[in-house]
Task: inverse folding
């Protein structure tokens, strides 16, 4: 009697059916996890950049700017562009040729949309911010359950938004649900 060295067509079809059924239920939740992780990663990068700018302002005793910039030289208003940090020696909120680019982060993902309440984030020599800033990242589909936000208060502290009422939507600094 010969020993079998493979699988039969029926066995293979059963395994493929089981895999298809498992993927049918797992794939949608995996997509949600991937979307949330991308947004959290991007908000963490932005938070680190903003905190770096604040610490630089304190350490260097200089006005420090965080802004979006498509060309890494001129500040724009589109926070989906790459973000840059520089010491604003002439206090004009624009990066001059003699003002060194300290650090930058890449542009927002194509699937995410970043919005900020101010065009430019500025920190003074003592680390305080010139304006209260609300920073928000949403998924392009507009689902508020994916939204994440940061608040920069006048003292310059960066606070991550949280879901304090457990409804699945993160709140801003005023306690209102983020909307996309």
Result:
């Amino acid at each position: 009697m010969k020993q079998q060295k493979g699988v039969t067509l029926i066995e293979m079809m059963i395994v493929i059916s089981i895999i298809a059924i498992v993927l049918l239920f797992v794939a949608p939740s995996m997509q949600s996890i991937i979307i949330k992780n991308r947004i959290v990663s991007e908000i963490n990068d932005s938070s680190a950049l903003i905190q770096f700018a604040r610490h630089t302002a304190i350490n260097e005793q200089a006005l420090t700017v965080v802004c979006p910039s498509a060309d890494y030289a001129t500040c724009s208003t589109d926070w989906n562009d790459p973000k840059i940090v520089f010491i604003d020696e002439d206090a004009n909120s624009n990066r001059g040729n003699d003002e060194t680019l300290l650090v930058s982060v890449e542009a927002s993902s194509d699937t995410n949309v970043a919005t900020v309440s101010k065009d430019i984030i500025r920190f003074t020599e003592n680390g305080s911010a010139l304006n209260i800033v609300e920073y928000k990242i949403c998924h392009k589909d507009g689902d508020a359950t994916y939204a994440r936000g940061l608040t920069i208060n006048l003292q310059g502290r960066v606070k991550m938004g949280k879901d304090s009422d457990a409804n699945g939507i993160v709140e801003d600094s005023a306690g209102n649900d983020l909307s996309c």
Observations:
- The two ends are 68 Å apart (CA to CA).
- The mean pLDDT is 89.
